[in-house]
Amino acid sequence: MSGRIILHIDLNSFFASVEQLLQPHLAGKPVAVAGNPKQRRGIVITCSYEARAYGVKTTMHVRDALRLCPHLEIVAPNFPAYRDYSQRFFALLRDVSPILQPVSIDEGYLDITDVVGEHPLQFVDQLQQRIYTELQLPCSIGVAPNKFLAKMASDMKKPMGITVLRKRDVPQMLWHLPVTAMHGVGAKTAEKLKTLHVTTIGQLAQTERHELRRHFGVQGEQMHERANGQDRRAVDPLAIYDTKSVGNSTTFAQNLTERVAVYEAVKRLSVKVAKRLQMKSLAGTTVSVMIRTADWQTYTRSQTVQNALQDEEEISRVAWMLVERHWQGEPIRLLGVTVSHVIDAQARTEQLNLFNFEQHAQEEPILTLLDNINAKYDKQLVMKGMKKRMVSDEYYANTSFSKDVFLHFDVSKKS
Prior knowledge:
Blueprint: E1 6-11, H1 14-22, E2 31-34, E3 44-47, H2 49-52, H3 62-68, E4 73-75, H4 79-96, E5 100-104, E6 107-111, H5 120-135, E7 139-144, H6 147-154, E8 162-164, H7 170-173, H8 187-194, H9 201-206, H10 209-216, H11 218-227, E9 245-256, H12 259-279, E10 282-293, E11 298-309, H13 312-326, E12 332-344, H14 357-377, H15 393-397
Parallel strand pairs: 2-4, 7-8
Antiparallel strand pairs: 1-6, 1-7, 2-3, 5-6, 9-12, 10-11, 10-12
Helix pairs in contact: 10-11, 12-13
């Protein structure tokens, strides 16, 4: 292979594989990691390949999974164990190459161009075997000259597959596939492409670039490039910290119909979002609420504010305003609160107005003193507030951690 050599490494059925490793009696059996099967939030998070052979799938309700596979082993998620194995997985990859970009708890990109030697496929095979020997976890690896093709390749052979996908192979290996098989193209985009008579990756590749841009903007140009095997993105070790939004959602055991119950749910979600923002030293200017009704209709409403928010009371106030404005009293199955367009909390500036001007005026002498001290020594010795990244186990126990898990170690550290 010439040019860059990029790997996409994906741990196969990660949660289920960890459970089979920790509980040997589950080895070789159909296993599903899910919540409480007696509650509506009993959704299959992931399942073993033995379970998939019966038709069990991720996001399937537990009761439906049990109909397909009556002897399915249901296991509650063990997030501390998954976090531990994830960190060991990425530490191993970082030992192979410092150019590592995690993209979720169980997958990442690795640039091995400068470390691979003369036999890249032998190198990749040895890496796969090392992961299995040291962690006892199966993985699939895509090998390609760019990130998009590496991701597409890793999905082609599971479990324990290794697939090479070069640019010249794209017409033969990808163009016959439906556009929904293309990484980055969702159901809504596929429906819109269908109106342009584009249903396969090959048709997308052969559609005029300007036509796609007219309908999809910059995303249209990116889809055209990907369909032709082009991707200029580098493997970025720091990309995992580029958070664009922080949110939390919950599915209720019983539909919410009472105003007070909905308000309390908004408050609880806002507290969780605020805690995550504060842990990451972030603040955002857009608050969104997502409501899914009992008949599975989902809608999202957003409000952008002048000053970036981080406090639970402010987030809750805007979120509740959106709910009151748009909720028509339908029974609510799921509710979510998200803060987006986030920035570093220390970098935010607050627009002065009639109500906060006095507070800023009182702080001005302190800020002037800090500036004078820093100017005297030509260093940022003191500042207002302190940026902290102390993450507790309680934080992980109450939030999604597919990206937050990486705050515990430096993915960009060289071996």
